[in-house]
Fold these 3 entries.
Entry 1:
Amino acid sequence: MLRKKYEFDKEFSILIQLIGEMDDLIFKIDKILSDEQLFQLFESDLSKRYPKTNETGRNSTPVEVILRMLALKHLRDLSYEKTISNVNESLVLRQFCRIYFNPLPNKSTLIRWSNQIRQETLLQFNQRLTQIATQLQITQGSKIRTDGTVVATNIHFPSDNSLLVDGVKVISRLLSQAKEILLRDSKNINLSIFRNRHRTARRISREIDSLSKTRNQSGRQKREKAYSKLVEIAKASWKQAQKVKLFIGNSNLLEYQKLLQRFEIFLPRILQVIEQTQKRIFNSEKVPANEKIVSIFESHTDIICRGKINVDVEFGHKVWLDEVDGGIISNYRILKGNPHDTQQLVPSLDKHVENFGSSPKIVTTDRGVYSQSNENYAQLLGIKEVILPKGGYRSKERIKHERKRNFKKARRWHNGVEGRISFLKRCFGLQRCLYRGELGFSRWVGWGIIAHNLTIISRGTLKNKINIAAKI
């Protein structure tokens, strides 16, 4: 049964007074997370874990504890294990997470509850934080600067041979699990279908890597021959898996069905790797980026080329950020593929109007976002200063317009968005996503933005107090 909160512990409150209070930032974040609307958003998602989660079953970890422990994890960019360890060792953090003297949830419990949180819930959570920031006068929503960045998925650099080895490794692992189950129920199965080919595949892959530096005809022929062997091994493993899948598919037992699901997830991906390798290596065909698979584990990963000086290709997803005055990220979007930046201004402005009820006074972007239609749309919304620098050829009138004092001043303010992106990547994990799957990616980004906004709001309230005290 889903519990909302632990009962307030008077003995714990006496003890915490003797030890000391929370530091100012944590205290402010503690107050923000006490907001009833934020609590209800989480309660709504967690109550849908099972059909009767709110009615029957043993008592769960309370919603308030889960919310605060997940917030703490991303505020300090910790692992699940480290989060639990830190809370367990600190009375102040026990107070912050509202655990008191109660036992902490273990890592598996926390992960399962975390996986219940939907992307839409985190977006609504962030919108509520933006409302709180507006009420506390941290932001007025009068200015907006918008830009994109790439958050990498947690994969190794994809090469054809390494992806084939990954496929053989996964199949070998699944075959080993299937062997243990099938031989327990039947002794008349040919053991050759469980053959592990991973070590052979890995040896040939190393041979391909060593031959990749050769530029002569002989070296290229040897490399192609090695690729041919590796593809044959991958195909043989795939055929073994298909045979084992038929054995498993005839049973309705739960452990068979779970294993069957893994076969159904990975076998199509491995077949796609084999096919794209054959096209690229043997047929010298170019495979379009949207048809490539760069990881059999994180198959949702996009291939993104942004023309950066030090980075040719990035693997992950493009994330578009809208930052308003006060440093609050009022909205974010995880984009599919690698769409052009010119497509992002209109949705950003529409969402800003939805969040704040009015258009901003200033909107500023970089050169990649400029288009005449974007500029016209911003002006139609009644935005006084539309700062969209134009790339390429500029007329004399355009140059004169972009040299105006207010234009240059807004451009300088826009440069701060790069610092904001750097802050997100350094402190809140947006350099690389460590959660699994597409849904895990959306949760990782959402929590990173939320942790950032909680930090900015808490700093802003402290700063406002200092300013008021200085005036007095």
Entry 2:
Amino acid sequence: MTATAPGFNPAISLSALPADWPGGFWLHLLVFAIGIIIFVLVTVIIFIWLERRLVGRFQVRYGPNRTGPFGLLQPIADMIKILTKEDNVPARGDRLVFWLAPIVVLSPVFLVFAVVPFQDGALLADLNIGILYVIAIGSVTSIGVFMAGWASNNKYSLIGAMRSVAQLVSYEIPLVLSITGVILVAGSLSLSGIVEAQNVPFILLQPLAFLIYFIAALAEINRCPFDLVEADSELVSGYNIEYSGMKFAALMLTQYAEVAAISVIVTTLFLGGWRGPLLPPFLWFLIKVFAVFFLIEWIRFTLLRLRIDQVMAFAWKFLLPLALINLLITSAQVVFWPDASPWLIMIVNIAIMAFLIILWSRLFKPGGKSIAA
């Protein structure tokens, strides 16, 4: 099965950058490392501002509008405020692990961007196993979360950390299986190769894989309706309750940086990355990233938080079987239907997705009985 559709060939890029741009290995490394840090930090600041403006619109109230024009400086003011707060450490906690945890949580998020192609040739390292690198690095964050909960010597922190690890392990399986379908269609583990294979965006050729990946990714980064780690009514604030000052700022930065990472990965795997007509490639990339972010926020402000038993049941009883079925169907299409028209594949897969979702919604109820019963 090929992803090339007759008559649909969007402009790939205005000019592909050389592999060692702007010249030499070390200069390339320095420029892109600094560029990635700046990109993540600026994106996080914009995301925080947009989130507050969007929630104001969704809840029919004003968002930030005092600090700077349209409240644009509010994230900067919040950053200054949080960084100047007193930095406390629990008296009976493990000081070294407590100090290391925010670093372990934050570092992998920046490392994920090392293999993301912002446009043709514009990436730090074009690994031929780029997607495996992303999966492996992304899983390290849970170690830092558990370190934070355990080192705090607080039962609420520890329970929040244990919830996070359980949730990540549960949703990691359907997430990886959904990515496997994309790899089969693209025939490449490189993120650049996956983007170049998308003459038709994979969100059309692999709609069920997109849905599974998107839901599992929300659960992995603890975004609503899966934000049980920070269930205020149950755990006060989850694993980060004992943190303050710069350490708390690092944990909060991680949460929004993870949203940026998921938006970028979804754009790369399913939306054609930087590919698109007329506009510059990097601008297309940003448009798609912010569109995914808007979808994440729309879900956050619309859906209610699930219970922990519902979250776990949804992963194992709903997403996992659907991911396995999608992988089986995709494998059969690649082997037995390699020359089929992408548009025909798109229609078939959308119909299969609709049928499976309706069928599973009737066979499986994640809620079960209420806790009171």
Entry 3:
Amino acid sequence: MKLSEHLTSSSAAALSHPSELDGLRLTPHFTLDEMCKTSANLDNVPNEAQVENLKRLCGWLEKLRRRYNLRYVYGKMERSVSPPELGGARGGLNEGMSGASSDHPAHTGTPPNLGGEKITPIIINSGYRSEAVNKAVGGAKGSNHLTGCAADIRVTGIEQLVRYATILLDISDESQEDFDELLLERSPKGTYWLHFAVRPSGNRRKVRLMNG
């Protein structure tokens, strides 16, 4: 199977260089590029199986994105305002924003007719990691990041961390699909993030509060 069949963009048949990740879309609001970014000065290009895992993971992140914004962005607004459809490539939360092709930190703006409310994007700190990248950043051996099954999601603080985790648990319960890891993590400096992983099979539904 060609790699292009794993992507919503049919322009790429194979990947061999980081520049080829640019613009390739895994789901309507997540790109391969943002799921492979790394601070390490190393190539970080997934193979076809890892891309498929990333695509599965981003399916969960799309649901998280949609629910969080319905609940905590549109939910704060007047009941008379009807939100546009949030699940598709058109009419979604990024519709009408300058350069809004994915949930990238730079993609901040105000959708039309929403009373000045800003969209909350899902920002990925770390997604897929090659063996070299995982070693360079001190990742665990056997990490789900190595197979493209995990993402570390940036949060503004513990409140957003708990809300993200709650939504993902709700999604799992309602869909009756398990995830592998849901880790609420905190660094020694007090920075929080959410580690979320979904495997093709053998998911353990591991929920932990982790202190670094």
